[in-house]
Write a structure and sequence with these properties.
It is a single chain. The chain contains 14 helices and 13 strands. It has about 375 residues and is α/β, with parallel strands linked by helices. It folds into two domains: about 5-10 and about 265-380, Aspartate Aminotransferase, domain 1, CATH 3.90.1150.10; about 15-260, 3-Layer(aba) Sandwich (Aspartate Aminotransferase, domain 2), CATH 3.40.640. Strands 2-10-9-8-5-3-4 form a seven-stranded mixed beta sheet, sandwiched between helices. A hairpin with an 8-residue loop joins strand 12 and strand 13. The chain is globular.
């Protein structure tokens, strides 16, 4: 059926009708008092979402722009950093850091496994000369469905005393607890097309006071992504460059919806959907790809063994207009991923698991009793 596509991927995610309507307004001048009022209100809302009293700066760009900004505004050429790499986006951190001439020590884990927090502790404790300037990692590794223990890593960084924590929270912010000030995270980056329930186009960089002190010493080249310029204009409820005005309208509407629901309720909803999706897959007989106990609240990655994951995704999309995410890099065809991030409700989870079961039956690959996945999901969702 035309215009019925349901996004069950980790981004872009579904956008609420309220947000779409807000974005459908005529643009206004981005230097006008009316727009400055929007910037002022959203700045306060963003601090609420990040659980910080510090700056949360808005860039017109993708999440990768925020990642790059986090590095180039706090570090200098030749600085030593630790980078966690247990998936495609951890690998991206390594690429960005090396592009800017940083000395990168990689702490690696197999795709599907969490980063070993003790490896970070060991490396940081051995650094008696305090040469490590930052620890950089991905909180929710979108490519594998793994959630890394950001709180524990940040604790080890704080004990080091010199290094900063720079965290990709692109698919964790708005899905699980990321209390920036309480944990002591120095830089948090995220993107609009995830838990924010917006289309792509905005990215966000939250900076601690320690991060701003590092900014004063940073010598890496920057112009459009110079966060000092964003901070200077943010004080005046403005932006150094032309912002995505209509996305700001949507941002305010989305954040109002999130505040009405409340952080604890949002986090509980995402945790419940993770549990339901996992239970549904296990009941069907498809193994989870992420290590037990480390599944992301944003996305469930499913291993398909001998089944071609791309074939399954094709059937689910063609028969039910539900889009699942595929595996990335060497996991293509071996893994599919169910996004349950942002504007996703119980109905979406039920429909998706049901569609997967029917698709398996259509392909002649259903090994469990038909309906077992839906029954498992229903049992979780009915627990109030």
């Amino acid at each position: 059926m035309q215009d019925k596509l349901t996004l069950m991927i980790p981004g872009p995610t579904p956008v609420p009708e309220t947000v779409l309507k807000a974005m459908g307004r005529h643009p206004i001048g981005h230097r006008s008092g009316e727009f400055q009022a929007v910037v002022r209100r959203t700045a306060k809302q963003l601090r609420w979402l990040h659980q910080t009293s510090g700056d949360v700066l808005v860039i017109t760009g993708s999440g990768t722009a925020a990642m790059e900004a986090g590095i180039i505004n706090t570090l200098s050429r030749g600085d030593k950093v630790l980078c966690g790499d247990n998936g495609k986006f951890g690998k991206r951190w390594v690429k960005v850091a090396r592009t800017y001439g940083l000395e990168v020590e990689v702490i690696k884990a197999e795709w599907g496994q969490p980063l070993n927090t003790e490896a970070f502790r060991t490396a940081l404790e051995a650094d008696t000369a305090k040469q490590i300037k930052a620890v950089i990692l991905t909180h929710s590794e979108t490519s594998t469905g793994v959630i890394n223990d950001l709180e524990a890593v940040t604790r080890h960084v704080k004990a080091h005393g010199t290094a900063l924590t720079i965290a990709d929270c692109v698919t964790s912010l708005g899905a699980t607890n990321v209390p920036m000030d309480t944990w002591g995270i120095d830089v948090v980056v995220s993107g609009s097309q995830k838990g924010y329930m917006l289309p792509p186009g905005l990215s966000f960089v939250a900076m601690s006071s320690r991060a701003w002190k590092a900014y004063e010493q940073s010598d890496l080249p920057k112009f459009y992504l110079d966060l000092g310029a964003y901070q200077k204009t943010a004080v005046k409820d403005s932006n150094p460059f032309t912002p995505a005005v209509n996305l700001y309208f949507g941002l305010e509407a989305a954040l109002e919806m999130m505040q009405e629901e409340g952080l604890d309720t949002i986090f509980a909803r995402h945790a419940r959907h993770r549990t339901a999706a996992q239970a549904g897959m296990e009941a069907i007989g498809l193994p989870l790809f992420a290590a037990q106990g480390y599944g992301s609240p944003a996305i469930t990655a499913v291993a398909t063994r001998s089944l071609d994951a791309e074939q399954l995704r094709k059937v689910v999309k063609e028969k039910f207009d539900i889009l699942l995410a595929g595996g990335q890099d060497h996991l293509k065809g071996r893994v599919f991923r169910i996004g349950h991030l942002g504007y996703v409700c119980d109905r979406d989870i039920l429909a998706t698991i049901s569609a997967i079961e029917v698709a398996l039956q259509f392909l002649g690959l259903q090994k469990s009793k038909v309906g077992s996945g839906v029954a498992a999901v229903s049992a979780i969702l009915n627990q109030i």
